[in-house]
Write a structure and sequence with these properties.
The chain is mainly alpha-helical. The protein contains 12 helices and no strands. It has 2 domains: 97 residues, Endonuclease Iii, domain 2 (Orthogonal Bundle), CATH 1.10.1670; 100 residues, Endonuclease III, domain 1 (Orthogonal Bundle). Bound molecules: iron/sulfur cluster (SF4).
Length: 218
Amino acid sequence: MLRDELDTIIRKLRAEYPDGDRCGLRFSDPVQLLISTILSAQCTDVRVNKTTPALFARFPDAKAFADADVKEIEELIKPCGLYHTKAANIKKCCESIVNDFGGNVPGTIGELTTLAGTGRKTANLVLGEWFGRPAYVIDTHVKRIWSLLGITGSTTPEAIEDDLRTLIPPDDPEAGEALALSHLLITHGRNVCVARRPDCASCCIKDHCRHYLNGNAS
Ligand code: SF4
């Protein structure tokens, strides 16, 4: 795929989802962003945003989370699901931030991925959303739709990140479009290109979809 076509896809998705090119989580510092992202695994942004005000009021920074009784974190995040694992990861993650990074969320993908509960997807999100760095966020929706569009035949998040880096290099003046594209594809994956039951007739980017053009519309 050429950059021109990718820009057209971004333009069409933006027209369809005017607010879909930004993060749906509410946060006011990088610790809150990190924790909200951990909570968003298999949970909606709306539910996370309903849960975090009380959580962040009780635990205002990484030190407070590091010192917390994990049971208390569990109680507060229960509505987000997987609360045993998520609470343990949040506490461990904040212990590392305090003990290894002086209380500050680190700003490189290598450092971020040392934190509990923080894979490449979360690390890239924090880099892009908070640090304003070029970020290539690959989640299950992005991976699926990229493959359907024929943008990438790669299967691992790292390889898909590389494919996107080739199309939108980190030093490109519009490198921020990579993060916007990820948000747009996540929105499209939640609303139209739903796994196993995509609504191809309603799809604003079907003219670019190899799956659709090959006569496999659902
Ligand atoms: S045409 Fe169908 S399969 Fe292709 S991106 Fe759109 S919804 Fe998904």
